[in-house]
Amino acid sequence: MSKLPKEHQFIDLSDYGRPVARIIANSLKTTKYTPVDVTISFVISGLIGVFSIFKGYYFSAAFFLILKSILDAADGELARLKETPSYTGRFLDSIADIILNFIIFFTLWYLTDISILLTFLAFFGIQLQGTLYNYYYVILRNRFDGDTTSRVFEDKTPVALPGEKQKNVNILFFLYKTFYGVFDKIIYALDKNASEGKTLPNWLMSLISSFGLGFQLLLISILLVFNLKEFIIPFFIGYSLLIFVFVAIRKIFY
Questions:
Q1: pLDDT in tens, 169-183
Q2: 26-44: buried (b, 16+ CB within 10 Å) or exposed (e) per residue?
Q3: Mean pLDDT score across all residues of the chain
Q4: DSSP string computed for 147-198
Q5: Domain with 22 in it: what CATH number?
Q6: Partner of 200 at 20 to 30 A CA spacing, among 16, 107, 152, 191?
Q7: Domain range for residue 100?
Q8: Strand ranges for the chain from DSSP E
Q9: Is residue 31 domain-resident?
Q10: Backbone angles phi, psi at 147, to 5 degrees
Q11: pTM for the structure as a whole
């Protein structure tokens, strides 16, 4: 089910794995497996992908990174099918994503002659990319009631939902804010009036969706398969400059 009304649905370049994710979720609907189990499986897939990069098995790395992206979508699909939403799963998912991103980029640093500073800039850049995409996407979803459960920025600890412990939510929310707080603040500073502007057109949202984690992993996988691992870090530094382009388009025209 889309998170937006039909007229505001756009082609999400980062969500290419959704059809397979739904198949996986449907196959697990009547089993004992939980959304958190699927989250753990995408962490394992991501780590196998990193190990494959380290060993130079680039086709294997691409497979497991893309599988990670698919499983990343499947945990949310399963939560909806089982009607078991949880903040535990939501924050655990995001924390796992940023840690895996960090491991991927610093593995690339270890295997190449790229400086640690440029590696950090690339990692910082991809996190800002994802934050900008989520910022505009959640504003769009909130505006049209396509999904009212997401907040533009997480600013206070939520109350645990039925079936989860408040202590776990508190811990995971603290970690989430620790990891993501700086990126939220930067994006908000760049475009704090976005929620008051016009609705972004579908074509622009599709372009911005290239900042989503799924598409980022796809780009990394393609570069690995073509044995271009030395170009991944410089590429994402340059790609991050589009953040300012998209923000400028939003401010000038919408």
A1: 999 999 999 999 999
A2: eebeeeeebbbebbebbbe
A3: 93
A4: --S--SS--SPPPPPTTS-HHHHHHHHHHHHHHHHHHHHHHHHH-TTGGGSP
A5: 1.20.120.1760
A6: 16
A7: 12-253
A8: none
A9: yes
A10: -160, 115
A11: 0.93
